[in-house]
Amino acid sequence: MLKIPFLNLYLQYRAIKKEIDSAIQKVIEDSAFSGGKYVAKFEKQFAKYIGIKYAVGVNSGTSALHLALVALGIGKGDEVIMPGNTFIATVWAVSYVGAKPVFVDCNPDTWQIDETRVKGQISNKVKAIIGVHLFGQPFDIEKVLRICRKHKLYLIEDCAQAHGAIYKGIKVGSYGDLACFSFYPGKNLGAYGEAGAVLTNNARYAERMSRLRNHSSVKKYQHNEIGFNMRMDGIQAAVLSIKLKYLDKWNRRRKEIANIYRTKIINPLIKMQYQPSGSESAYHLFVVTSKNRDKFIKFLKKNGIEALIHYPIPCHLQQAYQDLGYKRGDLPVTEEFAENCVSLPIYPELEKQAINKICQVVNRYEG
Ligand SMILES: Cc1ncc(COP(=O)(O)O)c(C=O)c1O
C-alpha cells in the first residue's frame, strides 16, 4: 500500500542538496555563525521578495511577534485583539510583553478573524490587532485595516504560514505596521533549525528591533535599554537564501495540488476553506472539516494517509489562559472548527499518484 506521510522534508533537501551543503560549509569556514553577513544578505533578499523596505532576522517566529510588540511599545495595561483560531505562539507574544490577549471568533467559511466581531471588543485599552493569515490564506486585510485606522490601532500581520500569499495583488506582510514570519523547518520557506523575521517600512522600528535582538547593543558592551538575544543564525540565513529562490516554484506546486483537491474531492461530508476572490493562499496547510473527525482521520490512516489537526484546542480554552476567564461557548465558530478540522498532506514534492489516492480515499469516506 502506498504510504503518504503528512510531510517529507528530506525530499526537498535531496533536490537542492549540493547548493545547501556548500552554503552551510561556507558559513562554517567563515565562522559567521550568529548574525553577520549571511543574515544581512538574507534580510535584504527577503524584504525585496515581500516588497518591503526592512527585514530584521531573528531566531523564531515567536521572537518576531514578541519583538514587534516591544517595538510598538505595547505592554502592561494594554490589550491586543487576535483570532482565537491561531497557533498559540501568536498569543504568547502578547503575554511576554505583559499585555492582555482579547480573542475574537472566526468566520464560518474562511475560518479567519471575523472582523464584524472585532468592533465589540474595542476599548481604549486596545492598542493593536494581530491578524493571522492562517493556513497560508490571507485574512480580509482591508476590512481589518479600516478598523485599525478608525480606532488608531496598530496592525501586526502574523505571516508565519503565508510566505508568498497574495492579497489584492500584493504580497501579505506589506500591509501591517509590522509583519512577522516564521521559518520553522516545515513552513513554506523553512530553515534547517529555528528562524523568523519582522518586516516593516518604518526605519525607526527596524533600527530599534535590530538593536533589541542583539542585546540592545548601541556599540559593543554599551546597552541603553533591556535587550534580548534573538539573533538569527548564519547557517539558517544561508539556507534560507538558497531556498528563497525556489519559493515561488514550490508555492505554485502547492497551489496546483490544492486545485486538484478542490476539484476532485467531491464528498459532501467534507468542507474546504472558502477562498474569497482577490486573495491567493500560499497553501501552507490544506485544511478541511469533517463530521466525526476522529473517525475520518482513522479512516485515512487505515488507507495509508497521515493527516493532522491544526489545532485541536482553541487558544481561549487552553489551560495556560484559564486566568482570562473564557469558557466553552464564547467563540462558538472557532470551537466547532477545532472539533472538526483535519489537515491533509500538501507539499511540493507530493507526487501525482499520492494526490490522486488522497482524493479517492477522501471521496470514499462515508462518515
Ligand atoms: C500562526 C503562527 N504564528 C507564530 C508561529 C511561531 O513561529 P515559530 O515556531 O517559528 O516560533 C507559528 C509557527 O508555527 C505559526 O504557525
Characterization of the model:
It contains twelve helices and 15 strands. It has 367 residues and is an alpha/beta fold. It has two domains: 9-244, Aspartate Aminotransferase, domain 2 (3-Layer(aba) Sandwich), CATH 3.40.640; 247-364, Aspartate Aminotransferase, domain 1, CATH 3.90.1150. The strands form four sheets. It has a seven-stranded mixed sheet with strand order 1-9-8-5-4-2-3, sandwiched between helices. It has a three-stranded antiparallel sheet with strand order 7-6-13, with no helix packed on it. Helix 1 (9-30) packs across helix 8 (234-244) and helix 3 (61-71) packs across helix 7. The longest helix has 22 residues, at 9-30. The radius of gyration is 21 Å and the shape is globular. The relative contact order is 0.17. The site of pyridoxal-5'-phosphate has 14 residues, from helix 3 and helix 4.
Quick overview of this protein structure:
The protein is an alpha/beta fold.
Terminal Cα span: 23 Å
Question: Helices and strands: which structural class?
Answer: alpha/beta
What does the overall shape look like? Answer: globular
| CATH fold assignment of the largest domain | Aspartate Aminotransferase, domain 2
Calculate Rg over CA atoms: 21 Å
User: What is the second-level CATH architecture of the largest domain?
Assistant: 3-Layer(aba) Sandwich
As residue ranges, the low-confidence spans are none
Mean pLDDT across the residues is: 97
**Strands of the largest sheet, in order across it?**
1-9-8-5-4-2-3
Bound ligands, each once: pyridoxal-5'-phosphate
Describe the largest sheet: 7 strands, mixed
Strand content: 15-25%
Give the helix level as a range of percent.
25-40%
**Strands, count:** 15
By CATH, the superfamily of the largest domain comes out as Type I PLP-dependent aspartate aminotransferase-like (Major domain)
The number of domains is 2
Helix/strand order: HHEHEHEHEHEEEEEHEEHHEEEHHEH
CATH class of the largest domain: Alpha Beta
By DSSP (H or I, 4+ residues per run), the number of helices equals 12
